[in-house]
C-alpha cells in the first residue's frame, strides 16, 4: 500500500514538473494559443499509466484477500473430526515433563 501511494505521488510530481517547465518555455507566447496534441500525449500517459497500474494492483489485492478469507473459512467449517485419532497420536508423542520436580520431603528436626 505504501509503495502504491509513493508511486502515485511520484507520478503526480513528475506531472507538475513537466507542466511548470512547459509554462516557463511558453511564457512569451500568447495565452490563447492551444497546445498541440503531441505535447499533451506524455502528460496524459503520466496520469493514465500509474492510475491503471494502481487500479489493477488494488483489484488484485482485493481478490487475493477475498480468496484468503474464503479458504480460511472453509478450513474452519469443513473436514473430519476424529478425536480418538488425535488422542492416540498425542498419547504416543507426549512424555512426562522433566521440568516438574517433586518438592523435598519434609523432615522432623
Looking at the structure, what is the overall shape? elongated
N-to-C span = 72 Å
Helix share, percent = 55-70%
Q: Let me know the largest β-sheet.
A: none
Strand content: under 5%
Order of helices and strands: HHH
How would you characterize the overall build of this protein?
The protein is mostly helical and 109 residues long. The protein has a domain at 1-26 and 40-76. The chain contains three helices and no strands. Helix 1 (2-25) packs antiparallel against helix 2. The protein is elongated and about 100 Å long. It starts with a helix and ends in a 16-residue tail after the last helix. The relative contact order is 0.07.
In short:
This protein has helices at residues 2-25, 37-77, 83-93. It is an all-alpha fold and 109 residues long.
Features:
mainly alpha; Crumbs homolog 3a; 109 residues; signal; membrane
Q: What's the topology here?
A:
Layout: H1 2-25, H2 37-77, H3 83-93
Helix pairs in contact: 1-2
Amino acid at each position: 500500500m505504501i509503495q502504491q501511494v509513493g508511486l502515485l505521488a511520484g507520478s503526480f510530481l513528475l506531472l507538475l514538473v513537466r507542466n511548470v517547465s512547459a509554462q516557463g518555455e511558453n511564457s512569451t507566447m500568447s495565452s490563447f494559443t492551444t497546445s498541440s496534441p503531441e505535447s499533451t500525449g506524455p502528460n496524459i500517459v503520466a496520469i493514465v499509466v500509474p492510475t491503471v497500474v494502481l487500479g489493477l494492483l488494488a483489484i488484485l489485492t482485493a481478490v487475493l484477500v477475498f480468496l484468503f478469507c474464503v479458504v480460511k473459512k472453509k478450513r474452519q467449517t469443513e473436514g473430519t473430526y476424529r478425536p480418538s485419532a488425535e488422542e492416540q497420536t498425542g498419547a504416543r508423542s507426549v512424555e512426562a515433563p522433566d521440568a516438574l520436580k517433586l518438592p523435598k520431603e519434609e523432615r522432623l528436626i
